[in-house]
Automatic annotation (TrEMBL):
<dbReference type="Pfam" id="PF00011">
    <property type="entry name" value="HSP20"/>
</dbReference>
<feature type="domain" description="SHSP">
    <location>
        <begin position="26"/>
        <end position="132"/>
    </location>
</feature>
<dbReference type="InterPro" id="IPR002068">
    <property type="entry name" value="A-crystallin/Hsp20_dom"/>
</dbReference>
<comment type="similarity">
    <text>Belongs to the small heat shock protein (HSP20) family.</text>
</comment>
<dbReference type="InterPro" id="IPR008978">
    <property type="entry name" value="HSP20-like_chaperone"/>
</dbReference>
<protein>
    <submittedName>
        <fullName>Hsp20/alpha crystallin family protein</fullName>
    </submittedName>
</protein>
Length: 132
């Protein structure tokens, strides 16, 4: 009994059984940009930390109920340093964010502040059906 318990503990991380269902099929792209999404009641605020990409380099589009944020810029890889660690894209990135049906895609506004792309994504007003 004790031996079986010991073997089971070595089998995996104690939290693995909780994490696996959510992240099992999810792989982080090799180089990508961090993103925060905030709910502000009548709109969402999406912050894309795409430092060094100009607003002109970034394309925001909506496809199949996904908000797609793509950044592409000319980059000469010949001058790249020998990275010991690279967590940040130099040439391109892409983030896709699933949208709910309640998002007013036509009203999305993008601005850039201090290298952070800020998207204001308005929600459609909720339809309230009164039952008489």
């Amino acid at each position: 009994m004790h031996h079986h318990q010991h073997r089971h503990q070595q089998h995996g991380h104690p939290f693995a059984q909780f994490i696996r269902p959510f992240f099992g099929g999810w792989r982080r792209p090799k180089h990508n940009v961090p993103m925060n999404v905030e709910d502000h009641g009548d709109h969402y605020k999406v912050m894309v930390y795409a430092v060094s990409f100009d607003k002109a380099d970034i394309k925001v589009s909506v496809l199949n109920d996904q908000l797609i944020i793509q950044g592409t810029r000319a980059h000469d890889t010949a001058n790249d340093p020998a990275f010991l660690l690279q967590e940040y894209p130099l040439k391109s990135f892409e983030r896709a964010l699933p949208l709910s049906q309640r998002v007013d895609t036509a009203g999305i506004v993008a601005k850039q502040e201090n290298g952070v792309l800020i998207l204001t994504v308005p929600k459609k007003p909720e339809v309230v059906v009164e039952v008489s």
